[in-house]
Design goal:
InterPro entries: Calponin-like (IPR050606), Calponin_repeat (IPR000557), CH_dom (IPR001715), CH_dom_sf (IPR036872), SM22_calponin (IPR003096). By secondary structure, the chain is mainly α. The protein has a domain of about 90 residues. The chain has four helices and no strands. The chain starts with 20 loop residues before the first helix and ends in a 27-residue tail after the last helix.
């Protein structure tokens, strides 16, 4: 996260052994999660600390969060390697009344078109038989 935005995480506990290792790991994860929200990742894309520390099926949620960070990096103009597709942006369309009603004046070819329509070839292939 500090590569994407320098200084985003001010305190990082280095890997160490001891009785407080699990608490340090959890604090590192919480610092990361707070930094990504400040960076522009939606709160709904965050994962819970337990998804990463426990041995459950939460790894898919963690990967979705990492992809969300990749989308946010592209949106924020990160020049390095990217991960995943670019996030869509709000792009409203403004049509005048004439354009909106133009489709109602047109009659599609499916309405009343019978030239060439037949049931010829409907039994193409093997015919239906009781003895099959």
């Amino acid at each position: 996260m500090n590569t994407l935005k320098p200084g985003a995480i001010k305190k990082i506990h280095r890997v160490a052994s001891g009785s407080f290792k699990q608490f340090r790991d959890m604090e590192n994860i919480e610092n990361f999660l707070n930094a990504i929200v400040a960076y522009g990742v939606a709160v709904t894309d965050k994962f819970g600390t337990a998804n990463l520390t426990d041995r459950n099926n939460g790894m898919a949620i963690v990967l979705n969060c990492i992809h969300a960070v990749g989308r946010a990096a592209q949106k924020n103009g990160f020049e390095g390697p990217t991960l995943g597709p670019k996030e869509s942006q709000y792009n409203p369309r403004n049509f005048d009344e004439e354009t909106l009603h133009a489709g109602q004046k047109m009659i599609g070819l499916q309405y009343g078109y019978t030239q060439g329509a037949s049931q010829k070839g409907m039994n193409f292939g093997k015919t239906r038989s009781i003895t099959d």
